[in-house]
Each structure stands twice: as structure tokens, then as C-alpha cells.
Design goal:
Blueprint lengths: L1 E6 L7 H13 L4 E7 L2 H8 L2 E4 L3 H9 L2 E7 L9 H15 L3 E7 L7 H12 L3 E4 L2 H9 L5 E2 L22 E5 L8 H18 L2 E4 L4 H14 L4 E3 L5 H9 L3 E4 L2 H9 L3 E6 L2 H10 L3 E3 L7 H15 L5 H9 L2 H6 L4
Parallel strand pairs: 1-2, 1-4, 2-3, 4-5, 5-6, 6-7, 8-9, 8-11, 9-10, 11-12, 12-13
Helix pairs in contact: 4-5, 7-12, 9-10
């Protein structure tokens, strides 16, 4: 068995990044034994039954040194919007593995934004030495073409996430409207108030149940609680401990109003219609790729009634949507498996 270290934003309680890890584990060749670098190794091992070590530790370097391969496991690891620390940390681990002669793969990456010259240099240096590279969006592919780095473009790997049953059935009347909002500078208190009022109007027009679904409780939980307190009609907050259960949840939901990229991907892959509230270019790119309607938070209207009416139009149109685009995406995402076969 070949040992391979998996590196990503794992063990931080973010359902999207955990979904990337689960999908990566699904796709690994059968002769590969994974070692996951995790913020919370005990939780990762308990959840997925794999070996895990602390992500910023001597044990992480030992794991890389004794492994046969190293994988950047999906997501936007190489970006400097939050800070320069991210590309320095992930780049250092990748380059360490390369200097030791390990097989290195960048899998399902979203590259950038890279605003600083040093972040661009680190990313380019690492990717040029990878055995194989896959990216999940056209913007990343365009950047790599400009750097003359060989790669292939395929949909985000989470499109292939397999679901597992929820611990309980959803006991709410249809239509069921899921809502995922996260804290972000573009979601100001004033805009949140407008969205909550729009939800009230939308819910009343449809006679719907509102199901609030935090993807990372530290960033989404307080907003979900606020919305719950301000809604009067049928509503609930559902906190989920494993990303695969979101797939099962969205299979039982009629419509999602979502901010997070992976809430929209998991819902769409489960056959749940969506309307996006985009705060990031990666969300806008997904909307364009999958014809997902919605709003840009930067230019969100101040008229709650107008937003609710637009959501109603999106919902009604979704009852007649063609699933051929989604099916094509699910076929294309299998290319990520071919990339990982190079680890064997």
C-alpha cells in the first residue's frame, strides 16, 4: 500500500471543505492509504476512519517525509485575499514534498485571487513541479495557461459527493426552502435585514417551510439564529455533522437560497433548484456554468418585495428546469479520478 498525505482546509468545521475531503477519499485508488493533515485530527479520524495528524506540526512533516505522495486536496488553498499566510503555508508543504522527491498532485484547485507578487511566485513554483494539476474553474485554467502550466479543467469534485441518510426525516410541509447565509463583509447588517424581510414575504406567498442550514457554525450559526428568531411561520435550523448528509437533506428540499459555493453545488447535484447570493467570483462562475439565477450581494436591491418576487420567479421556473447540464457536469467531474490514478 502506498501512503499519500492529503492537505487541505480540513478539520475546521467547514462542510464544504469536509465535502472535498470525503470526495477525495471516495476517489483515491484502492491501493492508497491516506494520511490527512487536519486542524482537528481526532475529529477527522472519528468521522472518516482515516489516519490524521495535526496540520501545523512536526508530525505533519514526518508524515510527508515517510509517504509516497502528497496532494493539495481541493478548494482555494492558494489565495491571498484572507492573508499571505495561506499560500506560504500550503506552498511550503508542497515544495517540501517535492524536494523530497514525492509524487505531488494539485487536485480540484481554485487558484487565486493572488494579489501579491510573492503569492503568485510561490503558486507558480509549486504547480510547475507537480506531476499533475486539475482546476475547477475557467479563471484558474486561464491563469495556468498564461503560466504555461499543463493542467486540465473539470467541475468541482464535490459534484461527485455520495450522500448518506440523515439521522431523522424532515417533518415539515412542502414547499421546503433551505437557506444558507454566511458572515461576510458584503453581507452588511442592513442587507441582512432586507434579506430577512424578503424571506418573510417569500415564505408567506408560497406557504413554505424555511430550513436554515449552517455550513460552518462559527460563521453561519449566528445568522441562522437571527433569521430563526425573526421568522414567525414554520422554520427550523438543521445542524449536520457530516457533509454527505447535506446531499440527503437537499434531496428532500424544494429550493435553496444559498451563499456558499458548496451549498449550491451539493444542492444542485441532489436535484434541488437554487438561487444564489454571490459574494465571491467563484460563486458567480458557478452560476454562469450551471445557469443558477440569483443576486450579487454588492448590488443587492433594497426592495425586499422585489427580491421576494424574483425568488418566486426563480422557484416557479425551477419546476420546469432541464437537468441535462447537471448530468453533463456529473460526467465531467469523473476526470478527477483519472488524475489520482497517477498515485498508484
Amino acid at each position: 500500500m502506498r501512503k499519500v498525505v492529503l492537505c487541505g482546509y480540513y478539520g475546521q468545521g467547514n462542510a464544504g471543505d469536509e465535502a472535498l475531503l470525503v470526495t477525495l477519499l471516495q476517489m483515491l485508488p484502492s491501493d492508497v492509504t491516506p494520511i490527512v493533515l487536519s486542524h482537528n485530527p481526532q475529529t477527522t479520524t472519528a468521522a472518516y476512519g482515516v489516519q490524521a495528524v495535526k496540520h501545523k506540526s512536526l508530525d505533519a512533516l514526518k508524515a510527508i517525509a515517510t509517504a509516497n505522495g502528497f496532494v493539495w486536496g481541493g478548494g482555494s488553498l492558494m489565495q491571498d485575499v484572507s492573508s499571505l499566510a495561506s499560500p506560504i503555508y500550503y506552498g511550503a508543504l508542497m515544495k517540501f514534498a517535492q524536494l523530497l522527491g514525492k509524487k505531488t498532485i494539485a487536485w480540484g484547485q481554485g487558484i487565486g485571487p493572488l494579489n501579491s507578487a510573492i503569492a503568485q511566485w510561490i503558486t507558480r513554483l509549486c504547480l510547475k513541479s507537480c506531476k499533475a494539476v486539475s482546476v475547477r474553474d475557467l479563471g484558474s485554467a486561464t491563469l495556468l495557461r498564461s503560466w504555461r502550466i499543463q493542467h486540465f479543467l473539470a467541475p468541482d469534485p464535490v459534484w461527485a459527493l455520495a450522500g448518506i441518510p440523515l439521522d431523522q426525516d424532515l417533518d415539515f410541509p412542502h414547499p421546503r426552502i433551505a437557506v444558507n447565509l454566511r458572515s461576510h463583509q458584503t453581507l452588511t447588517p442592513e442587507k441582512l435585514d432586507v434579506i430577512i424581510e424578503a424571506l418573510k414575504i417569500f415564505q408567506k406567498k408560497l406557504g413554505a417551510s424555511i430550513i436554515l442550514v449552517p455550513f460552518q457554525d462559527s460563521q453561519d450559526g449566528a445568522i441562522a439564529e437571527q433569521i430563526y428568531q425573526e421568522l414567525d411561520a414554520s422554520r427550523a435550523i438543521i445542524r449536520i455533522d457530516k457533509p454527505q448528509k447535506f446531499k440527503s437533506l437537499f434531496e428532500q428540499v424544494d429550493f435553496l437560497i444559498g451563499m456558499r459555493l458548496h451549498s449550491l453545488i451539493i444542492a444542485s447535484s441532489a436535484g434541488c433548484a437554487c438561487s444564489a447570493l454571490s459574494y465571491d467570483p467563484k460563486v458567480t462562475q458557478l452560476q454562469n456554468q450551471c445557469s443558477i439565477p440569483g443576486f450579487e450581494l454588492d448590488t443587492l436591491p433594497r426592495d425586499s418585495a422585489a427580491i421576494a418576487q424574483t425568488w418566486l420567479q426563480h422557484y416557479e421556473a425551477s419546476q420546469h428546469q432541464n437537468s441535462s447540464d447537471i448530468n453533463a457536469i456529473k460526467q465531467d467531474v469523473q476526470q478527477h479520478i483519472e488524475l489520482l490514478s497517477l498515485l498508484s
